[in-house]
Amino acid sequence: MMNSSGISASLLSLGAVDFGIVVDSAVVMVENIMRRYKNATPAEKQKGIVRFTYDCATEVGTEVLFAILIIILAYLPIFSFERIEGRLFKPMAFTLSFAIFGALLFTMTVVPVLMSFFYRRYFESKNPGPIEWHNPVYEWVERKYEKIVHYLVDRSKKVVMIAFTGVTGLLIVGACLGTEFLPSLDEGGFTLRLYFPVGISLPEAKKFVPKIRGMIYKNEQVNMILSQYGRNDDGTDPLPPNRLEIYVGLKDYKNWNEKITKEQLLIRMRNDLEEGLPGVKVSFSQPIMDNLSEAIMGTIADLAVFVSGQDLKEMRHISQQILDIVSKMKGASEYGIEQEGPAPQLVIRLKRAVAARYGINISDIQNVIEAAVGMEPISYLYEGPMDTPPKERALFGIAVRFAKDYRQSAREIANIPIISPKGERIPLSELAEITQEDSPTMIFRQDGKRTITVRLNVRGRDQGGFVAELQEKVKKEVKIPEGFEVRYGGQYENLARVGKQLAIVIPVTIGIIFGLLFMLYRNLKSVIVALSCIPLSLLGGIYALLGRGYYFNVSAGVGFISLFGIATMAGILFVSKANHLRHDDIMMSVREASILSAVSQLRPRLMTMLLALLGLIPATMASGVGSDVQRPLATVMVGGLASALFLVLTVMPSLYILVMGSKEDVKSKGSSKSLSGDYASIYPEPEYSFISDDEEYQAPTEKSKKKLKSNKDKKLKRIFSFLGFTVG
């Protein structure tokens, strides 16, 4: 499926795929069949292992199907990602969805067949012996857990109140987490930018390149250097004369003899360059992210403040005020105004009245100035044999202008002679006013508006908090005249855009999950209990971010999104088991069903959660190139799964008792309304629902039980037929 979707096997598609999650459905299926084999009665063994295994598989088939659908559906917000975040996280979401769907097909079809094949001898033997290895550790854990559950359910209100008070408190703390678009990426090498004083010429800037390369090469970690100043060969990336870009390639970290991190190496290089080149500003960044950011947002900075208007002088004044504010803020680094400032220019204003008295045309004066100071072609030269057609010969222009000594200053230019119609030699100074003025060297436009950009990077602080503080200070300290606009872009623009998008998509996704759970249970209370796993898992995710000092970014958000489906699976297994127990024994109380469900589901919940958790631990500790994007995601999921494992095992039984109440009874199977349309031929009807005390309960007869069993078998056969398999 990856091949047909055009997704290649790479760090982006496989880097954070948790293969523990992939096997969760098979674990639930195998555990249920094993437990049923172990407790099979002689009457059940009479059915034969094929039929009995089929019955065991159908007991959890519906729950597994809905749980996997919800896990895949939880990735809907990731599927909606665009631009940079889509490139980074969509491959992982699609790959994991493909793997989970394949595992679902394997679980629903192949796993029951393999179980019946491997355990046929045990099932048919009169003295089969133990079906599984004796595990004293798990048996001890199970006994202790049962005692703990009894203790906790006797104090259900206190347990639930303490748990959700803690969740609420930490969610409030989590709302104060710093925010950023993406963590700082490590692409191996890095891009070094040097900003010389405005007005420096290209030949003068070129003189510094060998010195700069030598200062960089003295670090033994450097593998290669590629420098660029001015315009590149294809003309697509013109740089101003005062800007020098250098790509620095590094050796593999394993081959570094000196024990130093990349961050420490960059700090050392910055200090060396700033000491060796006074007045030069130094900036470091990553080449791939730079190209993406510049192509999409027009800037490579973490934050760009765009000042738009018509008056360049006023725009420059506003930009300078904002730059002064930025320079005093904590966390601001590598700040400056993107566009070059005004540079001295020679301005020649012709005196039309004086020129008219001499009878000289304005165009004649302009032609002389152009030829003397600039360059004017007077003829053309063809290169090649004379018998070759002109179109096939090289053409060169022949241009003339004054010698350098006669045009290198305003005084020499003022003495340029202009010949009048009468043959008089009149100096240019009599026909024009020649002054030296500061004028803009370049005018940058965005969306058709003149724009000046204040660029900066944020170091040691979250982008969201920095921008919020900057916006408040600009609003108070900078007066923005009418007709001018200040807006904030760069990486922060992506952060704001993704935040607005997720604010819509995540509630929609949770609503769809709610609808699927209601289709499964046809009971609002059961849905609420199953969904309560989501806030319980968020608790650990937030704590993990705080513990590792990470900000909330898109990668961490993807981790929280992934938790929705995985945590809901644990709730589905618990609630479904408790409801099945109450259905099978109508006299069983809610308390008893909750305890029995918690104890009987201990093994599958431990296995599914621990497999998913352990599968992500390597990603949390990864330190190679490209691992920066995956670490926050894996950290959130490990913390969330750990808290979900603990809180679901301890809080869920008490919550089930409080929500379901102690006076409800379970109605017989098949009593609820059936699904309509095409879905009725694919999904089975719910096996249970709830009635209130004022309704009369009618116990199911043997005839009705057989009929319901037959209907269920037919519907499950439809599911397998829909998937392309045949059941006898």
From TrEMBL:
| Protein name per the record | MMPL family protein
The organism sits in which domain of life?
Answer: Bacteria
UniProt GO cellular component terms: plasma membrane
Q: Does the keyword Methyltransferase apply?
A: no
The organism of origin for this protein: Leptospira interrogans serovar Australis str. 200703203
* PANTHER family the record matches: CATION EFFLUX SYSTEM PROTEIN, PTHR32063
Q: Which Pfam families match?
A: ACR_tran
The record, for InterPro entries, names: AcrB_DN_DC_subdom, Acrflvin-R
Gene3D superfamilies, A to Z: Multidrug efflux transporter AcrB pore domain, Multidrug efflux transporter AcrB TolC docking domain, DN and DC subdomains, Multidrug efflux transporter AcrB transmembrane domain
**A single MF term (Gene Ontology):** xenobiotic transmembrane transporter activity
Q: Please list every transmembrane segment annotated in the UniProt record, as residue ranges.
A: 64-81, 93-119, 502-520, 527-546, 552-575, 606-627, 633-659
Query: Sorted alphabetically, which keywords does the UniProt record give?
Result: Membrane, Transmembrane, Transmembrane helix
